[in-house]
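User: C-alpha cells for Cytochrome ubiquinol oxidase subunit I, please.
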Amino acid sequence: MSELAVDLARIQFAFTVSFHIIFPAFSIGLASYITVLEALHLKTRQHQFLELSKYWTKIFAVTFGMGVVSGIVMSYQFGTNWGVFSDKTGPVLGPLMGYEVLTAFFLEAGFLGIMLFGRERVGERLHFLAVAVVAFGTLLSATWILSVNSWMQTPAGFSYNEQGQFIVTDWFEVVFNPSFLYRLVHMVIAAYLTTAFMVAGVGAWHLLRAPHNELARISLSMGMWMALLVTPIQIVAGDMHGLNTLEHQPMKVAAMEGHFETRKGAPLILFGIPNEETETVDYKVEIPYLGSIILTHSVDGEIKGLKSVPPEDRPPVAIVFWSFRIMVAVGFLMLAIGLTSLWLRRKKALYETPWFLKICTWSAPCGFVAILAGWVTTEVGRQPYTVYGHLRTVDSVSPIDAAAVGTSLAVFVVVYFAIFGAGIYYLLKLMRKSPTKYEQDLDSRVVTRLSHGNASHDIVDDASPRQGES
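Assistant: Done. Predicted C-alpha cells:
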C-alpha cells in the first residue's frame, strides 16, 4: 500500500465527512428549536411561535435530507477504502452503528412525515409530540455515532480473537468509554449554538431590511439568549473535555498546545508557527505557567511533550495546533456577541443597532466553522491511529490503487459541490424569505405600538398576538 493511496483515502473521507457533519449538527439543534417553538405556541397561544415553527420546519426538512444522503456515502467508504478497518473493528462498531439505524433513524423516519405533513391532520398536540420525538431521535442518533467515534479515540471493553479482530468483552465499557460523555455533551451543545447563531443571523438579516419584523425580532432574541447562556457552559465543557483528552491522548494535547518538550509549569502558547523539523514553535507568543494551570489546574503541573514519543507516533502538529485555535477563537467570539447582546438588550437597543445586526448576520455560520475546526482537531489529533494506540491508519486501508482513489476523489469533489452546493443555495434562498408575510405591509396597530417605544421588549413582549393574523 503506497503512502499516496493512504493519504488520498484519508482526504476523500475527510472531504465527505466535512460536508456531512454540518447537516446533522444543524438538524439536531433545529429540531430542538422547533420543539421549543411548538411548546411555546401551545402554552401561550401566540401565533408568532407557530409561524416561526412553520418557517424553520421547511429549512429542517431540507437539512435533514441532505444529512441522510451525505451520510450514506460515508458508509460505503468503510467497505471500499477502509476494508481492513471494517474487518478489524466490525464486531465492535458494526452493532453500534446498527443500533443507531434501528433506534434513532427509524424513530426519526417514523415521525418525520407527521412533523412535515401532518400539522392539519393530526391535531396540534399530536403534532407537537411528533416534533419532540424527531428531536429526541436526532439526539439519540448523535449518541450512538459519538459512542462509535469515542471508542475509536479511547477504546475500552474489548479483546482480540484469533483473527486479530476487536471483540467486545463489556458492552457497557464500549458504549460508555472514557471520553464518550465529554464528547456527547460538547457536540450537542455545539449543535445548539450553531443553530442559535443561524437563527439569530437570519433574524438580524431580516431586521436590517424591515426593522419592525416581529418574527425576526423573536428569532434574534431567542438566538442571543442561547448564545449568552450556553456559550459559557460550552467553554466549561470544553475544558473538561480537554482534561479528559490529556489523560487518555496526551500527544493530541501536546500538538494542540504546541509543546514539544515535557515540562512543568508549561506556558500557554497563544500564537506561533510549529516547526516539526526543528521541533520548536517559531515566533511564539506565550503566557508563562498558564498552560499548566489550564490543563492540570496546577502552576507546576507537568505537560508531556511530543518528544516523549517517537516521531512516527506523533500527530501532524501544525494542523492540530491551528484548528484548535480557530475553534477556541470562534467560541470566544460567540461569547463576546452574547455579552454584547445583553448590553444592548439592557439599553433597549437590541433590534435597532445596525452594526450589531450586521455582526450577527456575518457570524451566522460561525458555529459550523467551530464544529469543523473541532472535528479536524479531534480526528487529525488521533493520528497515526484509527483506533487510538491499537490500530494504525496505514494498516486500516484496503488494498487499493492510488490512481483509483484519486479518480473517485475527483468525482466526489465535482458531484458534492454540484449537489450540495445547490442544496445550500436552496437553504439560503429559504432563509432569505421573510418569516412573516407582514414584512412589507405591517399592521397599523403594530406600527403604532412600536412607535410608542415598545419595540425592544423581550421574547414574549415581541410576540404579543395580533387579531386576524395566522
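User: Anything notable?

Assistant: The chain has 16 helices and eight strands.
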